[in-house]
């Protein structure tokens, strides 16, 4: 998993109607398999869930 070091993501959370929501944005390669070393071929993937599900 050497490529895991290049996998970039950002995590966020917020409250909506007293429900805490978590989301993250991953920056993956064009095949959505690994982190992307090149911004020109990066795909952004968002994951959204309730904090209690994490």
Summarize, please.
The protein is an all-beta fold.
Short descriptors:
54 residues; mainly beta; 3-stranded antiparallel beta sheet
Question: How does this structure look, described?
Answer:
The chain is mainly β. The chain has one domain. It is 0% helix and 50% strand. The protein contains no helices and 3 strands. The chain has a 3-stranded antiparallel β-sheet with strand order 1-2-3, with no helix packed on it. Strand 1 and strand 2 form a beta hairpin. It is elongated and about 40 Å long.
Order of helices and strands: EEE
**Mean pLDDT rating:** 82
Q: What general outline do the C-alpha atoms trace? A: elongated
Count of distinct structural domains: 1
Tell me what portion of residues adopts beta-strand conformation: over 45%
Helix content: under 10%
**Major sheet description:** 3 strands, antiparallel
Count of individual beta strands: 3
* Count of runs of 4 or more consecutive helical residues: 0
Radius of gyration based on Cα positions: 13 Å
């Amino acid at each position: 998993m050497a490529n895991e070091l290049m996998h970039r993501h950002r995590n966020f959370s917020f409250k909506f109607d007293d429900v805490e929501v978590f989301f993250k944005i991953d920056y993956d390669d064009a095949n959505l398999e690994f982190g992307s070393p090149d911004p020109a071929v990066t795909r952004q993937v968002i994951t959204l869930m309730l904090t209690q599900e994490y």
